[in-house]
Specification:
Blueprint lengths: L4 E10 L2 E11 L4 E5 L6 H9 L6 E6 L2 E2 L10 E4 L11 H11 L4 H14 L15 H13 L5 E5 L7 H18 L2 E6 L2 H7 L2 E6 L2 E6 L1 H6 L4 H6 L4 E7 L4 E4 L5 E3 L4 E6 L4 E4 L8 E12 L3 E8 L2 E8 L11 E6 L5 E4 L1
Parallel strand pairs: 3-8, 3-9, 6-7, 7-8
Antiparallel strand pairs: 1-2, 1-4, 4-5, 9-10, 11-12, 11-14, 12-13, 14-20, 15-19, 16-17, 16-19, 17-18
The structure holds adenosine-5'-triphosphate.
Length: 347
């Protein structure tokens, strides 16, 4: 099937600085894609190229097969929601949302009808008569969303739309926004530098690094099987265990002298903290174990992380709740790696 949006070798640079390098990506109709990466990696530049505010020097951007690389923003069947909602302060919420259709030539009656529908979709059906300042930050953000979807674009671009909200509201809005997106069936491309936000919302995550796409995949795949060290470290907390070659197709890990069959080019093994366990009593037979010394304990309520030194390696061990919070630095413990949690990274 033809993707809704396709990016083919898109490159963009500013005054000698290469902001995007050969970006290739396809987005399907109705899909929720998160662009994730650290500050300066090119997320906003990519979004602006898709929106038409920037034109790439090379490469092609297509929507449903049509080349829109150089088309002006208003000719593209998409809309953008920015971090600042920029609502008209003197207009009612309903008029704010009806403004777009009115400008596009809809009658007042029709524009108001579509505004009502869009406001109902974002859960603000009762708020049309209010002025923006009489709404909370989260509600204002939803008005901005209603305004962006009122003309039913095929694709909505969202540039860190939740970053002005406090953490609790932000977490709630993530869930709401995901539900609204599913209900609308509009494809979303959502820029964020918050890996939890990307994991919580997206069907697929595009991890970017220095203007390139580092990996594209479902959140669970990115988390369990990061393609590179950068992805392993940017998405979640990894334990990276150096691996040295030990004959064809085998490597020795810097943990308990463990020797394993590994893919070609493996330079380290990654294991998430929840796949490292503190062994009390007899270890399960498939568990590779080593003795270590507790260095630190960080208990934040929902999860406790125990830092255990095993030789040159400090392993993070995650435990649910306050379990392990009473361990003292200096205590000797046995740690084990769950074999199913081991993932090998090349390079
Ligand atoms: P952030 O999360 O901080 O917004 P980002 O991943 O969205 O970062 P971009 O805004 O796309 O990053 O910027 C990518 C790179 O291009 C950065 O190094 C930035 O300084 C540079 N850049 C962006 N816009 C311009 C511009 N108009 N002129 C010159 N350099 C720019």
């Amino acid at each position: 099937m033809q993707p809704l949006l396709s990016l083919e070798a898109v490159s963009k640079h500013f005054a000698g600085h290469q902001a995007l390098r050969d970006v290739e990506l396809g987005v399907s109709a109705g899909e929720f894609v998160a662009l994730l990466g650290p500050s300066g990696c090119g997320k906003t530049t990519l979004l602006r190229c898709i929106a038409g505010f920037l034109i790439p020097e090379s490469g092609r951007i297509r929507i449903e097969g049509e080349d829109i690389t150089a088309a002006p923003p208003y000719r593209r069947p998409l809309n953008t929601v920015f971090q600042s909602y920029a609502l008209f302060p003197h207009m009612s919420v309903a008029d704010n949302v009806a403004y777009g259709p009115r400008r596009a030539g809809a009658s007042r009656r029709e524009a108001q009808g579509r505004a009502r529908e869009a406001l109902a979709l974002v859960g603000l059906g009762e708020m049309g008569a209010r002025l923006p300042r009489a709404l909370s930050g989260g509600q204002q953000q939803r008005v901005a969303l209603a305004r962006a979807i009122v003309n039913r674009p095929k694709l909505l671009l969202l540039d860190e739309p939740l970053s002005a909200l406090d953490l609790k509201l932000r977490r709630r809005m993530q869930i709401e926004l995901k539900h609204i997106q599913e209900k609308l069936g509009i494809a979303f491309i959502f820029v964020t530098h918050d890996q939890e936000e990307a994991m919580a919302m997206a069907d697929r995550i595009v991890v970017m690094h220095a203007g390139r796409i580092e990996q594209v995949g479902a959140p669970a795949d990115i988390y369990r099987a990061p393609a590179t060290r950068f992805v392993a470290e940017f998405v979640g907390e990894p334990n990276l265990i150096p691996a040295t070659p030990a004959g064809p197709g085998r490597a020795r890990l810097a943990f308990a002298g463990l020797e394993l069959a590994v893919p070609e080019g493996t330079s380290c093994a990654m294991v998430r903290p929840e796949d490292v366990v503190l062994v009390e009593g007899a270890a399960a037979p498939d568990l590779a174990t080593a003795t270590g010394v507790v260095e630190d304990v960080v208990a934040i309520g929902s999860v406790t992380t125990v830092f255990v030194r095993c030789g040159d390696l400090v392993l993070k061990v995650a435990r649910l709740g306050m379990s392990g919070a009473d361990l003292e630095p200096g205590a000797t413990v046995a740690v084990g790696l769950r074999p199913a949690g081991l993932h090998f990274i090349a390079g």
